[in-house]
Amino acid sequence: MTHIKLTKIAQSLPNAVPFVGPEALERQRGVAFKARLGANESTFGPSPKAIAAMNAAVQETWKYCDPENHDLKEALSAHLGVHRDHIVVGEGIDGLQGYLVRLIIEPGDAVVTSLGAYPTFNFHVNGFGGDLHTVPYQGNFEDIDALIAKAHQVKAKLVYFANPDNPMGTHHRGQDVAEFASKLPKGCLLLLDEAYADLAPPEAIPEIPVKTPNVIRMRTFSKAYGLAGARVGYAFGPVDLIQAFDKVRNHFGMTRVSQAGALAALADQEYFKHVTGLVAQSRTKIDKIARSNGLITVPSATNFVAVDCGRDHEFATLVLNGLIDQGVFVRMPGVSPLNRHIRVSCGGEQEMAAFADALPDALRSAG
Ligand SMILES: Cc1ncc(COP(=O)(O)O)c(C=O)c1O
Known about the structure:
The chain is of the alpha/beta class. Helices cover 42% and strands 14% of the residues. The protein has a 7-stranded mixed sheet with strand order 2-8-7-6-5-3-4, with helices on both faces.
């Protein structure tokens, strides 16, 4: 037993992790999954050009990465149409969220999010002693008006909002998101998590000038670009806030391989379009499989679909465990009433066939 005393904040934190990975489940079961449909990864994989670039970069892994992420920031600058001073690159959205919270949240500061929204954000807020306030979803949607009202009520410093959201896959119109930002209290920052923006319809993407002082947007190469394991995300927003990341970020947190992969993936827009087409087909397929088992789905703007198991949390958990027992890894929303759904990531023919094979038995054994 160590005699080293943890900080008060660390002592107050539960010994829990936000996600149990599929690898841990595989170790528990002693068998590999047939279909990995629980973490909203892209089973279609990255562009072959990105794979070639990463292979080439492996030869150079004796060198540290470029800590300024210069080339990737230049490419993102052209892609987004914003100057590179407005962009910071980091270890996925997860890593960037941690830096942002560290930069602006002190113990006791009020932070607002939706009940059941992406848990890693909450994990960071708790880790820096922020005071989380939640508002429930309205049906399958995050409730913008309630988030605004709560932000005013608790004098929030930070509001988290994902569009499209996880775990339901729904989205709000871009103009409503822009209006949301304009209605927040003075001194309150909107963290707009756009992990799934690349897969969403254009109407979901708000037109918010990058200089807007109270909005920071975060996107990732983990979803449509198929690079979840490479850990590449980026944030864009007002220059002073973006530059502040340099005070706290892990300057050598990227790898050369990840930088090369993301750069090549971004350049291969043909492959990107191909994948977004496959994702759309897979969403339709998941819906078809669900319907043929008497279930309905939530229309999704992401690379996953929430399938309504039609009863309560207990029943959905049995269905989920039934799928896992048959080698199909899926997850489910964490809170009621969203947790009567299971969340199924898009995949190729083999994964969809495994899901279609396993679902009838999972429903039968769930009773
Ligand atoms: C809403 C949301 N934000 C962020 C992430 C994580 O992104 P990254 O892999 O870039 O850390 C996910 C992944 O599932 C997500 O659903």
